[in-house]
Amino acid sequence: xxxxxxxxxxxxxxxxxxxxxxxxxxxxxxxxxxxxxxxxxxxxxxxxxxxxxxxxxxxxxxxxxxxxxxxxxxxxxxxxxxxxxxxxxxxxxxxxxxxxxxxxxxxxxxxxxxxxxxxxxxxxxxxxxxxxxxxxxxxxxxxxxxxxxxxxxxxxxxxxxxxxxxxxxxxxxxxxxxxxxxxxxxxxxxxxxxxxxxxxxxxxxxxxxxxxxxxxxxxxxxxxxxxxxxxxxxxxxxxxxxxxxxxxxxxxxxxxxxxxxxxxxxxxxxxxxxxxxxxxxxxxxxxxxxxxxxxxxxxxxxxxxxxxxxxxxxxxxxxxxxxxxxxxxxxxxxxxxxxxxxxxxxxxxx
Length: 350
What we know:
CATH topology of the largest domain: TIM Barrel
EC number: 2.5.1.97
Order of helices and strands: EEEHEHHHEHEHEHEHEHEHEEH
Distance between the termini: 60 Å
CATH architecture of the largest domain: Alpha-Beta Barrel
CATH class of the largest domain: Alpha Beta
Enzyme class: transferase
Number of domains: 2
Low-confidence stretches: none
InterPro entries: AFP_Neu5c_C_sf (IPR036732), Aldolase_TIM (IPR013785), PseI-like (IPR051690), PseI/NeuA/B-like_N (IPR013132), Pseudaminic_synth_PseI (IPR020030), SAF (IPR013974), SAF_AFP_Neu5Ac (IPR006190), SAF_PseI/NeuA/NeuB (IPR057736)
GO molecular function: transferase activity
Helix content: 25-40%
Keywords: Transferase
Shape: elongated
Mean pLDDT: 96
CATH superfamily of the largest domain: Aldolase class I
Radius of gyration: 30 Å
């Protein structure tokens, strides 16, 4: 699978999973808090930090009834109109430059999800290194075409999309000039249940579209993300907040700094553990072979005395013959007087 370069990072099976902290609306309408989130993400070891570029007017209409009002009692955002929710959650465009500047200072890849063509044009003035298409926009082919035309790597979340819709998105991106494409398995519920994560889709996506595949994870904890690495995920995205207790539009399903730090550590360990198909002792295991069980003389024996179940023992360490020869040696005499604790070798047998 092709390695993708974004700034100073390599994305692919030969590198540890690229971990993205998604700020979303967790800045709670404060630039100071937004910059604190950048600092905390860098300290936790994240590799990238993502924001979202839109305004309420580019997302929806200012209507407070019907399908523009969230009535679902199970929704985190019940009681809000779409317009008021996006007003509360959006990241002001004048904040983008200071956020990205702080990312550069701290070695983070700072980038964004644009939600319409004007957002792409704006982000191009800031020279972002890559783009992310959110799940709810993965059928917006004009937006995908616009992002692809920048010639920069594109990450597309696959939440809700059918194979046919994903094929349209991938074909559109490639035809419009996208050189590097990454798909993210995503379940678009907030929070998502591990039972609905279906991360077995990851290798299937990779096979279908010949692209790197990662995970946009809305489950609680790090278990699903770590498991996804074993299935080949090369990128992990999680929503991030300073503290869920602080509230905010996305806080309920967002990671805190200590959790993000553990995510970085454990996904790297999961990646390191993949290795390759291997049997027999590894180089590091060679010293352990001596602690296997083997055949030893268990009691002092006189020359010509035969092995019995009492004087032939299967014990540790492993300097004698393998235990599989135990039955073959019963009744066989020894050449010479042999003290207890002698490893049994073929030259000991008469």
